[in-house]
Structure formats: C-alpha cells, structure tokens
Amino acid sequence: MNIDAFWIIFTGALVAICCSLLGCFLILRRMAMVGDAISHAVLPGIVLAFLFSGSREIWTMLIGAAALGVVCTFLIEFLHKKVNVQADASIGVTFTWLFALGIILISVYAGQVDLDQDCVLYGEIAYVPLDIWLTESGMNLGPRTVWIMGGVMLVILLFISLFYKELYLTSFDPAFAAAIGISTTLWYYLLMGAVSLTTVAAFESVGAILVVALMVGPPATAYLLTDNLKKMLVISAVLGIVSSAAGFYLALWLNGSVAGAISVVIGVQFTLAFVFSPTHGLISRRRTSSPGRTNLPKEDTTTIEPAL
Amino acid sequence: MIQHVTDPVLEVHDLTVSYQRKPVLWDVDLTLPKQALVGVIGPNGAGKSTLIKAVMGLLPLNSGYVELFGKPLNEVRRKVSYVPQRESVDWDFPASALDVAMMGTYGQLGLFKRPGSREKKLAMEALEKVGMQDFANRQISQLSGGQQQRVFLSRALAQDADLYLMDEPFAGVDIATETAIIELLRQMRDAGKTVVVVHHDLQSAQDYFDWIILLNMRLVASGPTAQTLTPALLEKTYGGRLTELSRVSELLHKQNFPIRETKPTRKK
Amino acid sequence: MNALWEFLSMSDANVRFVTIGSVLLAASSAVVGCFTVLRKRALVGDAVAHAVLPGVCLAFILTGEKNPLILLLGSFITGWLSLIVIDAITAHSRIKEDTAIGLVLSVFFGVGILFLTSIQHSGNENQSGLDKFLFGSAAALVGQDLITFGAVAVLLLLSVLLLYKEFKLLSFDTAYARTLGMPVRGLELLLTTLTVLAVVVGIQSVGVVLMSAMLITPAAAARFWTDRLGAMVLIAATMSAFCGAAGAFVSFTAPAMPTGPWIVMLLSLLAILSFTLAPRKGLLARYLLQRRVRRQMTRENILKTLFQLGEGKGEYQHSYSKEQILERRQQPLLRMKDGLQTLCRQGLIQKNASGWALTESGKKEAQRVVRLHRLWELYLTQYLQVASDHVHEDAESIEHVLTPELEKRLEELLDYPTADPHQTSIPQQP
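The joint structure predicted for all components is written out below.
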C-alpha cells in the first residue's frame, strides 16, 4: 500500500466515523431524510465560502457553511409547522431548492470556484493526497483534508461522548425528556448542527451522496446486528471504516469513483446483515417468526421534532 | 361537584389548553390532595392526556397556570414524574429494560455527569419493584405490552418523585399486570405519594381510585370517588359534548381568533 | 433580449421541438407528482430518481450505445427495483421507511456513479453525454430522444386523464376504494409505474439529482391555491410547464449551463410565492386575517368600554376622553387611536370637544358585545361549573367570536337570562 492510498483510505475512514456515529441518532429519530436534505442543502454555503475566502480561515468557513445546514432544518420545520406544508413535501421542496441554488452558483462562478458539478455529487477523494499542508519552514504535515476531518471527528466524538445521555433520551422519548427538563429543541438543533458540520467538512472529498450513504448505511446495518445503542455506534463506525477501505480497492479495480464504490460496499454490508443477521436477519426471522412480538402501530415515517 | 383542598399537591388554575389552535380544555380549576390515588376519567377526546401534558409543561397554555407543591414546575421538576403513553415511543429502539429504567435518574444527574453504579443500583431497585429484575438486560422490543408498561413505571420509580402523572398505564396490559400495577400504586400512595392516572375503564375506577377527576372538554367533577362517580355526574361527563363549546372551538380555529386576548400571567 | 425574442418566436425548428418536449416532460411529472405527494410518498420519488442512474449506465454498458428506448428500459427497471427493495426492507426488517429510502437512494446512486465514472474512464467515445443525466440538459433532447420521451409523456397524461376518478379515490381514501370493489392493488401498481415513468422522462430535463423537485414542488405549491384535486393537478402542470419552457430557454442561450437547477430554482420561487401569496392558505392572507380580527377586537373593546363607562349612571352617550378610556381598559395607544378613527368613520362613535361618545347605532353595537360577554360568562358558570371569578378573561375573547346563531342558542339554553354571574344586568336585544 503506498502512501497515497493510505491517505485516501484514512480520510474515508475519518468521514465514515463522523457520519455513521451521527447517523445512528438520525435513523433512530426517523430523520434519515432530513440528513439527506442537509447534505444537499449546505452546497450554496460551501460555494460562497469558496468564493469569498479561498482557503484562509478554514474553520470560520466550515462553520459558516454548516450554519446553512441548520437553516435548512429550520426552514423545513417552518414550512411544515407555520406554513402547513406536508412534512415530506417540505423536506423535498427545501433541499432541492438550496441544492439548485448551489449548482447555479457553481456554474455562474465556474472560473472562480474550484468545484465542479460532478464533484459536488461524488467528490474527489482521490485528490486528497495532492493538497498537502506545508508549514512555513516547509515541513510536510500530510494532506490538509485529513487535518480538517480529524478536527471535525474530535468535535463529534466529544459531542457524543459528553452528551450521550441527552442525545439518547431525546431520541428515545422526547416527551419524557421534556418532562424532566431536557430541552428537545436544543438537542435537536445541536444534532443537526453536528450533522451539518460533518457534511460540510466531508463534502469536498466525498460529495453529497457518500455522506448520505455513510449516514444511513452503516447505522442501518448495525441496527440489524445489535440491540444496544453503544454497540450500535461502535459497529457502525467499524463498518464505515471497512467500507472505505474495501471501497477504495473496488474503485481501483473498476477504475471508477471511490465514493461510488464505497456506497456499493455499504449496500453489500447491509444486504448481508439483512439476510444473515443472527438476531434480525431474514433467515433468523423466518425460523423464529415470533408470535409474541408486539406489533405497535406504525407511525408517520417522517417525523419532525417540536420546535419554533 | 368540584372539591378543593387546602395545601394541595397540584393546583390547576383557570387552565385553557388548545391543540392545533382548537381549545380542548376550557377553564379547568382543580386541586389535588396529598397521598391520593387519583383517576382522570372521561370519554375519548375529552382532554385527559392534554391535562397531564399541560401540567408537565409539554403544551403551551392559553390561560391560567399550574403549581406543584405550591411552586412552578421548573422549581420542583425532580419531585414530579411523568409516564407517557406506551405507544408514544419506538419500542424497537436499541435499549434494554435497565437502560430505560436508568433514564429516570437522568434528571438529577445534570448536564455532563454520566450515570454510574449508584444510578444503576437505583434502576435495578426500581425494576425489582415492578417485578422486572430478571428482564433487566432484555431488549425492550422483546418484552410484552404489559412488561413494557412495567418498565415505563420502573423508570418513573427510579426518579423517586412525590407526584406521579401517568398517561394510560393500563392500556393494552394483561389482567395480571394490571393487578400488579395497581397494587404497586397503592403502596406508593401509602408511602405518601400522589399518583394521577389517566384511566379508561369506569368499572374498575370505583375500586382503584380514592379521588376522581371527570373531564369532558371541561372539568365536570373533582373529588372523593364516592361523591364523584354518581350516575348524574357520569351522565354529564359521557352524555354527549356541549355542542356550543365545540362550535366555538371550531370558530376560533377557522377564523384564526386568538384563544385568549392576553398571554397567561402568573399568580399575582 | 434578442435571444429571448428569438426563442419566443420559435422560428428555429429545433427550438420548437426542445421547448415542446420540455413542457411535456415537466407537465407530466407534475401531474403524477400531485398523486405522489397526496399519497405521502413524496420522498420515495427521490429514491426512484436516484435509482434511475445505474439503469441508464447498465443499459449503456450492455449495448454500447445511447439508444433512448434501451436507456429508458434500463432506467425503468432499476427505478422499479428500488421501490421493490424499499418495500422489502421495511416489510422484512425493523428498518423504518425513511432509513430504507435514504439507504436505497444512496446505494443505488453510488452504484450508478461507480458505473458512470468507470465508463468515463474506459475511453469509450460514445459515452459523452451520459453525465447529462445528472443535472439534465433540455438542449440535448433532439431527434429520436425527443420523440420517445415525448410519447411517454403523452401516454402518462392520457392514463391520468382516463383513470382520474380512480386515482382520486385512491389518493384520498384507499380503504374506502377497496370497499367499492376497486382493484386497489392494481391501481396502486399502475400509479407507481406512472411515477417511475414520470421520473424516467423527467430526468431528461432536470437530471437525476433534482428530479424529486419536479414531483414535489409543483404539487406542494398548487395545494395552496385550491382544495380541489382537478384544479390542483392543472395548476401544478401549468407551473411546471412554464418552468420547463424556461429551462429550454436557458439551454438555448447558455448551452454550458445545466438546465435542471434553473428549472428547479424557478419552480421553488413559484412555490415560495404560492406559500406567501395564495389566498386563504398563504402566509400573507393568514396574517391579514389575523390583523383584521385583532382590529375588530380592538374596536369592539372600545365600544364596550364606552358603554361600561356610562353604565353606572345610565348615560350611555356621554363623552369620554382618551385617558378615561385607557384608565378603564389598558391597551396600546396607537392601536386604540386607529380603532377610534375607524369607529368614527363607521358612525358608531362621535368626536366632540370632551372626547368620544357612542352614537345611537354605536350604543346598539356596544350592547351586543356586552350582552355576548355576559351570556358567555353565564354559560361558563352554569354549564362548565367555572367559578364566577374565572369567567371574565375567557369571555373577553369569546365575545368577539359568537355568531347570532350561537347567541340565540345560548339564550335558549340559559332561559333568557337578565343578569350575569356577577349580578350585573345583561342588556336586552332591542
């Protein structure tokens, strides 16, 4: 394995860890599609950030663009709650609008912005090793993206480990959380903020689609493998890392996009779990089609947290 | 028949609550005594759950205020425990019975502190009280409806509160669980707690509760069971809605009228 | 400006075809989209749109050419497959629908991207233009493509027209449709097939990524203008057709621009306009209604205050100054001034040297409000057992809402009362 391959896989793994950890909470809150919406909606923020500041002050840029993700969730809720647009339609209207805005900005400022339309979708993780961070004395610190993603991962890890119990409780039973004085709105927006930050940081290297794949895929697979949230977090992070390594080699073999290949591996992982999971797989369900299971009524698929 | 008590555990003062801009509870005034097992009774859509949610601050109030132990909710949150309806959560959630029971201790833990062995012990004791200690590590989706309800109760017990508000704890549970739960609630009452239960079944209400709240969009009665579960009051509660009230609710909703001209104010 | 003129004149046959094509594609996806949105399956359309990409690429890999029929077939197959997979995942595991949609969407699209990039790197000369499927390009619609996709769009519109009644019932109440003996399963299947077809043809103009907007946005916007399905479908189709034509124009003037984002941007702006300006449901209409209600309440409160000021002495048409009114009833000064002026204009009060006084008709109006207030107070105490010291605040707002019909009903119920719970007399109807 050469050093470039290492950096690419390493970046993929960092992105995978951030996305899949947050994704666990997203899918448990039935908000996978809100995650999808955010991953598209941050685009105009990223383009503007590129336009205005080049690569100076990377963190202000990141946070500025991430703010747009939070604005997107706010808009979705505003449309749903205040304007009375149907929940799923408000998601669909909001993110396509913001994404279209982003693409238009890219085409209008094609000369000034180092982003092209395709890259927005599937990123250019293969270029990660090219953008090296050199200190003033000329020391090679490795690819810039790795540092950024590493920083974001630290933030996410801190966020989840420090506030695990708040995230856990507000995801499981918001009414009880509110009753004991934990603000569901606050934690909802903090989680969305974390999702936005991750998306923005990961965007350049892996694009919108892989962010969604990593946010939904590994958590969904892990959800079929365990009944413990802590284990689910660990398993999905591991699955994410595995998929980024396997995806890299698959892409090499097929001479295609790394991001695309990683999503393919994610799909394979899920299919395997879906069929063979010892507890929740197709086969074990067939065998023990348990009559004692409680069939609670299925609720609305897209839930939006109470806020505003 | 609305009986008030002095030094109440819960005081609801001129409470009006609406759901999606339609008032569902009008001008409710009630007080509850200490050390009582209270049943909230009324037909579907009478606002029983709404009352409990409003007390817990989960719904905005159009008018009036709620006081617990003579103080606003925020000052006494730890002494109040809430058991939501069982259907309100996703039982496929990756959590064990012990995890759920442990959530009862979160309120006292504060922002950064993580639950440790003390909290685990509290949660185990709570599970024991509801007879679920053998299922502590069982995933919650593998429990029966009655067992899930017991787990919910244990979470409230782990909170060790003085006032318990329970939304339909007997919905969808087997008779054995129902008897066990009511026995537990009686013990709690005898230990000096007040337990408020939203309940559906009139037959059992007679035996279960020593104080009854009859609701149907408004408070029909609140008082000791013998004086409230009378044919006349039940007829008033179940004998159809007050059409004028529903009509006004409708109008308020349709014409976008404010339900109250002024924001609710606290007691002067 | 010249370009616009040239475009509008449609003198160029090519422009004509592309425009007609785009309009048809956009309108047909909007029509089908209405049903998708009403059946709360809006985001499923998003998944189908993304799942079309691997189909297109596979069809190309297998045949090596860009025959529109084959590409259409390929995308149709994977589009359908994605729906089957979503249903299978939700039916046979504990994965919830939103997760299944997100998973299928990203994995199918990932497969498509892998194929697409792989084809691009393979050096096949024929492949150029496949990436147009990502963001759409109306200008690329020429010759056989246009005929094929146009035909499908017409087919779509025709089937919706023919089965309009059935689809309407299906979207409104599936269970009821079943009791009527309709082949619900078959209709659902057909509607889903139409959705997939709409996506397949729609991506020609907006591309895979933004296709869901073509289904969702016009439907969501049209919903604000009407409560009738027929009108909703028409409005959505018109909006969409207009934006489709605009997309063709963008493609015509700036071939390098992707058309999809422009169409979606226009559609979104139309939607935002609809959300704000639509009568009755729009934000602005609701705000105005609220303001009207608030002003009416202020006016009625002023009348009531003037009436109450005179009630003690029985001199109802005495004049009172602003300060006296305010002393009796706290309210924002500006709002009160505005209310006083309007009341003057309506001839309900008169201004004179010492302030304002009720006119004869003003007194009647004031009496009506006071009457309603006290009737409602009495109703609350008698029928709701509300303590008499708690009824005032409630009646303060309800007095403005009560209709004459309710007033009559209350009178009957309370047996034509003459005094309210505070033993003040209830003014009688003249």
